[in-house]
Design brief:
With about 80 residues, this protein is an alpha+beta fold. It has helices at about 1-10, 65-80, and strands at about 25, 35, 40.
Length: about 80
């Protein structure tokens, strides 16, 4: 019964909204990024592995050239 009451009470409060997202801008040092307006550092991370050096999409060649995909992922692992 308590859970039912809590659910009804929460639904009366309306939807929960996140604050406005901050914009990312190039920092004054032109070597890093900052969130605007807070000024907190923004550090992008990750890899965008969607195509190879010849511009082919991974899904077009991974079955035939699995060794190439493995080698690329090993290289990414070494980068950290």
């Amino acid at each position: 019964m308590l859970m039912l009451f809590m659910g009804m009470h929460t639904s009366l409060l309306g939807p929960v909204r996140a604050g406005e997202p901050e914009w990312v801008r190039v920092a004054d040092d032109r070597r890093s990024f900052l969130l605007e307006p807070s000024g907190r550092p923004f550090v992008p991370w990750g890899f965008n592995y969607d195509h190879d050096r010849r511009g082919r999409l991974i899904e077009d060649y991974w079955h035939q050239e699995w060794a190439t995909v493995e080698a690329d992922f090993e290289e990414m692992k070494q980068l950290g």
